[in-house]
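Note to self: the last two entries modelled the partners one at a time, which told us nothing about the interface. This time every component goes in together.
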Amino acid sequence: MADYKPTEMMTIAAARALRNDDVCFVGIGQPSAACNLARLTHAPDIVLIYESGTLATKPNVLPLSIGDGELCETALTTVPVPEMFRYWLQGSRIKVGFLGGAQIDKFANLNTTVVGPYDKPKVRLPGGGGAPEIATSCGEIFIIMAQGKRSFVDRLDFVTSIGHVAGGDSRARLGVKTKGPTKLITDLALFEPDPETKEMTVVSLHPGVTRAQVQDNTGWPVKFAAQVAETPPPTARELEVLRELHARTNRAHSEAA
Amino acid sequence: MADYKPTEMMTIAAARALRNDDVCFVGIGQPSAACNLARLTHAPDIVLIYESGTLATKPNVLPLSIGDGELCETALTTVPVPEMFRYWLQGSRIKVGFLGGAQIDKFANLNTTVVGPYDKPKVRLPGGGGAPEIATSCGEIFIIMAQGKRSFVDRLDFVTSIGHVAGGDSRARLGVKTKGPTKLITDLALFEPDPETKEMTVVSLHPGVTRAQVQDNTGWPVKFAAQVAETPPPTARELEVLRELHARTNRAHSEAA
Amino acid sequence: MARISSLSEAITDAVRDGDTLALEGFTHLIPHAAGHEIVRQGRKGLTLIRMTPDLIYDQLIGMGCASRLVFSWGGNPGVGSLHRLRDAVENGWPQKLELEEHSHAAMANAYEAGAAGLPCAIFRGYIGGDLPKVNAKIKRVTCPFTGEELAAIPAHRPDVAVIHAQRADRAGNVMIEGVLGVQKEAVLASKRSVVTVEEIVDELPERSLNAVVLPYWTIQHVVAVPGGAFPSYAQGYYARNNAFYKKWDDIARERDTFLAWMKANVLEKGPEAFAQYTRKTRAAAD
Amino acid sequence: MARISSLSEAITDAVRDGDTLALEGFTHLIPHAAGHEIVRQGRKGLTLIRMTPDLIYDQLIGMGCASRLVFSWGGNPGVGSLHRLRDAVENGWPQKLELEEHSHAAMANAYEAGAAGLPCAIFRGYIGGDLPKVNAKIKRVTCPFTGEELAAIPAHRPDVAVIHAQRADRAGNVMIEGVLGVQKEAVLASKRSVVTVEEIVDELPERSLNAVVLPYWTIQHVVAVPGGAFPSYAQGYYARNNAFYKKWDDIARERDTFLAWMKANVLEKGPEAFAQYTRKTRAAAD
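The predicted structure of the combined assembly is written out below.
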């Protein structure tokens, strides 16, 4: 088995969750790496949409920002941002949306706004961006986040975007018809919502990861599924494509300032 | 003085009312002829917009329809129709709108919907099209209509688009901030609203036209301004440009079916 | 997901009796060939939506396909009346036609809201006129910030949109240029869609980074029907046949001349009859 | 009516102390040179609107030009925090910064409504999260047809919009290509506007019948500032300088390094300093 980093396992596990006929709303960073890895491996026809308006883009290097020229040049076309949010996101034309955040709770609600009180923040984070409506308008949501007790918390300081709210049918009772977070992919494990309670539940541990390790990096008592699988390790091909993608990207982004 | 038809006088009088810095929402037929005549004579920089989305178009021949290819090919650019009605018309970016109709009343309200009752029409007309919002969103409205007792009526069968409503400040009381009809140009005369009552009032008679002729072709007792001018007759240049425009247009529109 | 289909397959699959149907095209790119196929397949009880119903709707109405029309301007542009539309409204021939009448602004906003997945559209309109008295779907909403009363109308959400465009690629991505009308909105607002095109090409031309493209996953059927917009036009392929529009006034004025024309030119023909009208004419073509 | 101006004239005329100002650009075409001129002219008390405040807003905030920020995502994309923004919010340096915080969907809709002359926008959003608890401008409107509760927000109507674009012609018609963002909406929603461009040309290229063009009569000032988007980019002219975005993290982290950089690169320079960054690179340029 090849040697690999936990974040590589995380990206690869996320990529595997994508299907060839998905239409994805892609965020910068891990989601972008996962979506493009999927496109370069098992899902060549996957449709990637970035909120800058680029439809069906096929970047050769990962964008640093959500609107790099690379995205526009390789897109089917680029639409204005109001159209993106009206016709494409709100119009229910996106199957999978990706989110991450500074904090997540056990129902996969997310905080990307502040640490501490809103009016007197300890850390002022960038804010929600597209997340509040991505969370409710996409068919389903995949979340990618590295685990840690400061980010996997019992109680969010601020709910920027909803996951399964307070669990059970509380999301549906808000009138939201989409599925919400169906997968939470971390550097340690893969979580899916319990069918009844909607609590995010470990369904697969990455190779070599123990239940104790997951618990030590989570701020609530972790629930494990009746059957917990072991995530298949990265294949040589997956690692090769991912590393080439990152290498190309790093070369491109460090060209003369 | 050159020999000319009353409809030529009407078109020319309408063209003269336009200024070089106007931005006009142009309808098919007489308004289109008048606007393009203005553009080809004293107002070369006038901006003509057709509701098909063509911005700042400079057609060489008059379009038969509101969206002939000629309009698009000679435009600065062409926008989608929803944008046309949202950003350009509702966005208050049009200074002058042109309207006509099957029936008009003394306050320049217009009917282009039905003759007879709506549910059992004697004549079903094409309908309002853009008129209801053109009438209220453009800075001011010019109306071009040939006079006759069947069209200049005491009471409209249906109010498709408003002019000065019931006169006085009744238009403003509806919350409408634009001026409404400031000119009514007919084949006999030029009308403008009385500053107080807003009743359309004859301010100029076309050469050779009598007050009695105007009254005979109007279904309400016509009001004449204290000073009624005589419309200057068409100049040779105006007639030449207008006739060439119509001749080019007729040649273009009768090409093989 | 777009499928490259024959016109007959596409209409059979997508258009059903009783459907709410939008054949859009604002003067440009009106899907005449697809409309003819609907007539040939004898659809009944359709609700027809369109900003500017013109010849093709005159034909569908005159052939008894439609029971309801949602529209804002129904005429033969620059020529006059639609005689079959008038005959249906004024005399109930060949059947009664119920009208739901709007302004252009309302129709454009209703398509836009449909494409945007909203239940309604709001706009500044319908002030003072009589249309709200005869159309119960025109309501008012109050702006919660300024107190201004705005017009509200339900979004258009047709069962099917049918449009014509210049080109598609083999995956079914459709590119539209020129007078765009509300076609993109109509397709995005509809449950199903049929797009006829002048040609299917290996690669869409690289005209603009912001070209108007309907991606394949927003469309059900793509059908190559060269000339399929005639007597409307396809920018870059052929011009509007204004002479035919004038001629239609005579054809459609009387029931018998109308029926004879429909028999000879629609019922006894197929979509291939349109091919004679196409020819690339201008730069827009590539 | 557009006037071809120098940058200094344009900012002097269009931007006043206390104005509500939108310098827009969604990664692409961010008007950095114009932002620097605002800093040099020492504007105070500005309300800054922007979906994605990034380096240029970090600079305006750090130099004390702004008292209020209306935004949806404030970070250095792909890099991390905006340290000057955080310092203002967390520590009130160099002055307090009031926040009005939205989602992207809300901001995009607010610009769209502003361009459309509406007092408010409605959309399906802000469901279940905490933003409506901290932003009193988020209200609800009920659809009169379905009863669905939709989010409502006031339209953006800035005093001034400042954008950068590829080209203008001599009349002042401005053409934009590539990632379009909300720039067209921002200009149409604003009372006044300044557009800096890479170049002023005799004729806009005939790229598309549906090119994105802001006509001259919707704009106040057009200014040629080659390279004026750096370190953002101008599609067809120069690429985004991602390395500079990374470097900014170090420059802006501490107050003194920030002030030293601003002194050397903004206060002691003029718009001509941007010219070194422009070079036509790609097909889009023609």
